[in-house]
């Protein structure tokens, strides 16, 4: 277990460079007003607009192989991976350690993508389109996994690693239990690696991550309670380690109306109070609002701790959301969805 | 021990003057290390920020001027040799 024991004096200085840098990088993100304008553009126009932003390099490089929605999807993912890798490269010591711990979620994402791809029989080039090599597992290793013949071969490749136990949950029929176990593993590993350190920075990371777990659990609760699923099954799908773990676990399986009423008074309630209604399509809107709340939470925490890991986390989640929003717009446009429907899904903090 | 020798007094004065500038310098340095690192970080992304960044970086430097002023006052306000001149 890696344990960081750094002297207290001068520690915030370790964060000065990286926080200064991410705050400058934040100004280059796409402003919220632009999403409304992008909704009124067609796909080539969006690609042209993205060429004026930080995505220029990727769009230019990939324009000869892809076009339209595919081009934007590839370019955004390539840019996301590049940005995250850059954060790791320009940081040292404690910030780098904590950023890597947080970015391990992309390892989970990549493993899930490969498993899903193999499950549905997608080709390796198809799978590689959705890979974001931002975590510890590098492109070569992931490419090797994508080239394997079956899911069992992929699972065998992780023999002896932390992932082995979670992957052994695969029963040959459904991926849900494996994916759930992988998510739990990600948070468990983070708690184990960061919780063991005595650093203030690690404590702040965990503080944010606990809230993130709560929000993810809350989204699970909204979906499952809405569908009227049994309490025990819902509880299995909740990720342990959140700040409100106990309370949220008690809400599992409650009738939807009671569940929503029970949420009043929680800090996130004001973010969803006007959309938490009984109608069916309300859940996707609530999800978007909760994710936006999480971004605002990261940035507001970073106002209290300006020289800490929190501005970096804020940037990481904001960037991820930006890419997700662009992809939602492009995918929605391609499928011919009405603008209102796309707008509902978008996360605008 | 009573300090009666004017030379010793003047020597202590000089030590005080040195501490005034020296400690102010160390303080400014501690302040500047974070600002400097942050400015370099921002300039790496936004080269146009260099001017503003340098200005912010030099702000703690002004504290040394206070230290220097105190040193100068200490050194020149009183001199045991004034009577000899």
TrEMBL record, chain B:
Membrane topology annotation: Multi-pass membrane protein
Pfam families assigned: ATP-synt_C
Keyword Iron-sulfur on entry: no
InterPro entries: ATPase_proteolipid_c-like_dom, F/V-ATP_Csub_sf
Gene3D superfamilies: lithium bound rotor ring of v- atpase
CDD domains: ATP-synt_Vo_Ao_c_TtATPase_like
GO MF terms, alphabetically ordered: proton transmembrane transporter activity
Predominant cellular place of this UniProt entry's protein: membrane
Keywords recorded for this protein, A-Z: Membrane, Transmembrane, Transmembrane helix
GO cellular-component term (any): proton-transporting two-sector ATPase complex, proton-transporting domain
Domain V-ATPase proteolipid subunit C-like: 15-74
TM helices/strands, residue ranges: 54-78
Cellular localization per UniProt: Membrane
Name the UniProt record assigns to this protein: H+-transporting two-sector ATPase, C subunit
Annotated organism of origin: Methanothrix thermoacetophila (strain DSM 6194 / JCM 14653 / NBRC 101360 / PT)
Lineage start: Archaea, Methanobacteriati, Methanobacteriota, Stenosarchaea group, Methanomicrobia
């Amino acid at each position: 277990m890696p344990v960081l024991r750094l002297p207290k004096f001068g520690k915030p200085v370790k964060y000065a460079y990286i926080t200064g840098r991410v705050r400058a990088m934040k100004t280059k993100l796409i402003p919220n007003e632009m999403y409304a304008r992008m909704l009124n553009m067609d796909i080539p126009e969006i690609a042209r607009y993205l060429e004026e932003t930080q995505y220029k390099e990727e769009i230019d490089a990939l324009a000869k192989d892809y076009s339209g929605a595919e081009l934007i999807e590839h370019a955004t993912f390539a840019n996301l991976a590049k940005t995250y890798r850059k954060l790791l490269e320009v940081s040292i010591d404690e910030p780098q350690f904590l950023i890597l711990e947080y970015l391990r979620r992309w390892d989970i994402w990549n493993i899930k993508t490969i498993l899903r791809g193999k499950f549905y029989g997608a080709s390796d080039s198809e799978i590689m389109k959705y890979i974001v090599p931002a975590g510890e597992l590098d492109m070569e290793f992931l490419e090797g996994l994508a080239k394997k013949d079956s899911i069992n071969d992929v699972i065998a490749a992780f023999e002896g690693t932390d992932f082995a136990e979670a992957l052994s949950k695969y029963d040959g029929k459904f991926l849900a239990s494996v994916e759930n176990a992988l998510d739990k593993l990600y948070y468990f590993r983070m708690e184990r690696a960061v919780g063991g350190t005595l650093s203030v920075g690690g404590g702040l990371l965990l503080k944010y991550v606990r809230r993130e777990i709560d929000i993810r659990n809350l989204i699970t609760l909204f979906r499952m309670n809405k569908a009227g699923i049994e309490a025990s099954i819902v509880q299995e799908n909740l990720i342990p380690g959140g700040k409100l773990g106990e309370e949220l676990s008690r809400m599992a399986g409650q009738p939807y109306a009671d569940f929503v009423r029970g949420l009043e008074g929680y800090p996130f309630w004001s973010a969803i109070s006007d959309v938490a209604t009984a109608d069916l399509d309300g859940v996707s809107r609530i999800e978007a609002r909760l994710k936006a709340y999480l971004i605002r939470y990261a940035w507001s925490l970073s106002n209290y701790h300006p020289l800490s890991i929190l501005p970096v986390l804020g940037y990481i989640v904001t960037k991820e959301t930006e890419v997700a929003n662009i992809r939602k717009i492009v995918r929605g446009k391609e499928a011919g969805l009405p603008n209102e429907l796309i707008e509902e899904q978008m996360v605008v903090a | 021990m009573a300090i009666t020798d004017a030379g010793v007094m003047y020597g202590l004065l000089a030590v005080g003057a040195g501490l005034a500038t020296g400690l102010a310098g160390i303080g400014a340095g501690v302040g500047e290390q974070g600002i400097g690192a942050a400015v370099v970080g921002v300039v790496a992304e936004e080269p146009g920020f260099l001017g503003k960044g340098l200005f912010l970086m030099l702000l703690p430097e002004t504290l040394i001027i206070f230290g220097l002023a105190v040193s100068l006052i200490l050194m020149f306000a009183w001199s045991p040799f004034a009577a000899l001149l």
